[in-house]
Amino acid sequence: MNTQITQNTKDLQVDAQFPQTMREDEIDLRELFSVIWQGKWLIIAITAVFAVGSVIFAINQPNIYKAEALLAPASSEGSSGGLAALASQFGGLASMAGINLGGGSGTDKTQLAIEVLKSRQFVGEFIEKHQILPELMAVEKWHMADNSLSFDPELYNSETKTWVREVALPKRAEPSTQEAYKAFMKLISVNQAKDTGMVTISLEHQSPFVAKQWVDWLIADINRVMKERDVSEAMRSTEFLNKQIELTNVADIRAILYKLVEEQAKTIMFAEVRDEYVFKTLDPALVPEEKAKPKRALICVLGTMLGGMLAIMIVLIRHFARKEI
């Protein structure tokens, strides 16, 4: 009997505490809305400041234009197919002689070209060859009326063509290759579609004409660099193979070496007659007429929302801080 009375007493206590908790939560929620309503003018003021600031910030951002080109990997008729046939025909004899004919399992030439395009050496040589360092790192504004660029006088003196920026060591007034590479990689994007293999090269700049010109230069330069690499390698291989032919008297091995020399000659021939050696341009870059960024409306909306949330947090923190005191 006493146990039942004790249990009933506990149940009554729980039932009494539950609605009390509900009331406390309800009061807290009302208090929260009340605090926000009391601080509405502060919230409106802070939100308005952020809204005006975001508008000013968005207006002062320069227009950025994007030029892009669609490329297709050039067919590799030449050495790959010939070497594959040669491997199937003389693979056994070649392995006995210590010669690796491959058989087409090498690195994808398109992927290799993309990695070369993103390399520090290629980008550094590209910037040096075309003398685009001021246009890359010191542009202040593009003037649409006369298609001219103005440079930041605190960074670059366009009249004397000298760098005047003030930087701490180890940096120098003229940007280094590493600085230029980092700045350039922020502007360029190279993507290859997994399903089609097509490559898209895009570049952003304040001047749409500069963006288009740089894309054209990039395509021409990567084709030239990859062509020179293959021709140089083929010439060295030919020289080595001719020496090996002179050193062997085995007819079958000499036949393999002569075939290899023939394949290297084909590589050189195809490289010399094709300007678009690695990439063929399907859709060339055009001078963009519309800006790619900034998205000023989005900047204003996000800035205003940030200001509103920050204002509400300030009002709530002030209220509960005073309440604890």
Molecular structure report:
This protein is an alpha+beta fold and 325 residues long. 62% of the residues lie in helices and 12% in strands. It contains 10 helices and 8 strands. It has a 4-stranded antiparallel beta sheet with strand order 6-7-1-8, with helices on one face. A hairpin with a 4-residue loop joins strand 4 (156-157) and strand 5. The radius of gyration is 34 Å and the shape is elongated.
Architecture blueprint of SSEs:
Elements: H1 2-38, H2 40-60, E1 65-73, H3 79-96, H4 109-117, H5 120-130, H6 133-137, E2 139-143, E3 148-151, E4 156-157, E5 162-163, H7 177-185, E6 188-192, E7 199-205, H8 208-247, H9 251-273, E8 279-283, H10 296-324
Antiparallel strand pairs: 1-7, 1-8, 2-3, 4-5, 6-7
Helix pairs in contact: 2-10, 3-9, 5-7, 8-9
Summarize the structure.
It is a multi-pass membrane protein. This protein has 325 residues and is an alpha+beta fold. The protein contains ten helices and eight strands.
The proportion of residues forming helix, as a percent range, comes to 55-70%
The number of helices is 10
Average pLDDT value? 82
- How many E-type strands? 8
The main sheet comes to: 4 strands, antiparallel
